[in-house]
Specification:
The structure is a homodimer.
Chain A (H helix, E strand, L loop, with lengths): L1 E5 L3 E8 L7 E3 L2 E7 L1 H11 L4 E7 L1 H13 L5 E2 L2 E2 L5 E8 L5 E5 L7 H15 L5 E5 L10 H11 L4 E4 L2 H9 L4 E2 L3 H8 L4 H10 L5 E4 L5 E4 L4 E5 L11 H14 L4 H16 L9 H7 L4 E4 L4
Parallel strand pairs in A: 1-5, 1-10, 2-8, 5-6, 5-7, 10-11, 11-12
Antiparallel strand pairs in A: 2-4, 8-9, 13-14, 14-15, 15-16
Helix pairs in contact in A: 1-8, 4-5, 6-7, 8-9, 9-10
Chain lengths: ~300, ~300
């Protein structure tokens, strides 16, 4: 089983309006509701690829109930191992302006998680690590109340359980998480620059590695990905320029890396999966989902190149 | 008991953001949740004034459950006589830009109401009319699936039950509702112009009266209100210019008219209540609520003037 952790899961709402005009009133033409939060997106991609996948994190209140109902109704078949919390799961609202195709995003902060709730989660997480979890991914932002060192703690627990752990977050939670020595981190160029202070991707990825990560996979948008490991450094991209919606492309990259980790594939193969899945997500008509045909077509064409160590 | 009908009730969300930038991502600083929809707003004002008040209409799904929980928790003590529907109660999202104080509104369309659900509502409504309802107000837009002549039907039922009925809606539902001869309609200047084709308020109000309403109370924003009845015509306003948020001012005006109707007050007194409540809502720091002290201060100062019939 592959486990993903989403401490600040969300009920994702997408609103379509003919045109977004600040300070005006809009009738929303179309409403879409999805279970959201990075780890849930990663899990859905993994489940669609056929991997047995479970999600944990927090869910609470009426919005939490709605999120869990949507997850249960999803044909992909992700196992719900979310932990009940007293506050309401946050909503995110994406407003799609149909005249431009652009999205304006509004993200609620999330429920306040109490100390007892955090301790309860740690117990549930340990239990999951010891009951069939092959690899685990820790994804996204922290809800209010959760200690800023939360990911460092979850990384240490995974290492104690000898479970490979991938960390995908940003800012101070990433900085602290790195020090706990995760097997892999997947920052984007912006997040990487934020914690290392350098915007040159290769130097920044090596700096992140020196801070504790055993491997660093940096997603560079249309430029593909860069992977720095103890066994070598590789870059990869797709041979064609893809137009589309980049929402969820980073989460699909995590799913690709994680599935390769679960299957014990060599690093270049993990990277190829991540790049192909990411590109197939950009091309999908539905934001955050990947196009299976595009994935199947792109995977053999991904160019993985070894980068010489200076 | 005063009854208000809200066929398209809503879970009203208010998001505060430092500044709303189209096509950017925003962290919402503060989230407020309220039971919403015109009839629910009217009912809360009436309950705060001490009137025994019930609300009916539709509520469904997780959003409907959340709305009902908020209504039950409200200290004002409105009786919940909402009818269960299979679809989800709509949300409305008001995004407050803290840099300007302006609000951008996004309104979901509402659940689809099936024929059997509409028939079920009619039964519940008839039952309420015959079990202690002194006056009834029909408020707001229609959800998808409800016949466009719905308000005309509800007006006829009220007249059959000899219950005075106020109609507050717009467009085609208002046009059809007028023909069923409601006791009072409360359009704003824009809605009035929309159905009568004339923008001069007095002529438009008389035209609406000729289309079937026994009385027409037109809300004219900062210019106060105009009331055309079979007993005479009056205009009224407050002696001071009030700055503030006009959200909910129209609903408070309905509450003022309705409470005066329930108590059998003369028309000028009903109008004075409507104008004072409306102004006290503009002055309230919380959108849609009225400031009780401002109401008590303004009520005796409202100037009601008879308008000579040409």
């Amino acid at each position: 089983m592959i486990l993903t952790v989403t401490l600040n899961a969300a009920l994702d709402l997408t609103y379509h309006v003919p045109r977004l005009t600040p300070h005006a009133s809009h009738r929303v033409r179309q409403v879409t509701e999805r279970p959201g939060g990075k780890g849930l997106n990663v899990a859905r991609v993994l489940a669609a690829l056929g991997f047995e996948t479970a999600v944990t994190g927090f869910a609470g209140g009426d919005t939490g109930r709605e999120l869990r109902a949507l997850l249960a109704a999803d044909a992909a078949g992700v196992t719900d191992a979310l932990v009940e919390v007293s506050g309401n799961t946050r909503r995110t609202v994406g407003v799609v302006d149909e005249s431009t195709g652009d999205t304006t995003q509004l993200n609620e902060p999330g429920p306040h998680v109490g100390t007892a709730e955090w301790d309860g989660f740690l117990d549930a997480y340990r239990e999951l690590l010891h009951s069939g979890t092959k690899v685990v991914a820790l994804c996204g932002s922290l809800p209010p109340g959760v200690p800023v060192g939360a990911y460092a703690e979850l990384v240490r627990e995974a290492r104690t359980a000898r479970t490979p752990v991938l960390l995908d977050t940003s800012g101070e939670p990433l900085r602290r998480g790195l020090a706990a020595r995760p097997d892999l981190v997947k920052p984007n160029a912006h997040e990487l620059a934020g914690i290392t202070g350098t915007s040159e991707p290769l130097r920044a990825a090596r700096a992140a590695q020196q801070r504790g990560a055993r491997a660093v996979a940096a997603s560079l948008g249309a430029d593909g990905m860069l992977l720095v490991t103890q066994d070598g450094t590789w870059s990869a991209g797709v041979p064609e320029r893809l137009a589309g919606n980049p929402t969820g492309a980073g989460d699909s990259a995590v799913a690709g890396l994680l599935s390769g980790l679960a299957e014990g594939l060599p690093w270049p193969d993990r990277l190829a999966r991540a790049v192909a899945l990411s590109a197939a997500t950009v091309r999908s008509p539905v934001a955050g989902e990947f196009d299976e045909q595009t994935y199947a077509r792109l995977l053999p064409s991904v160019k993985v190149q070894q980068v010489d160590t200076p």
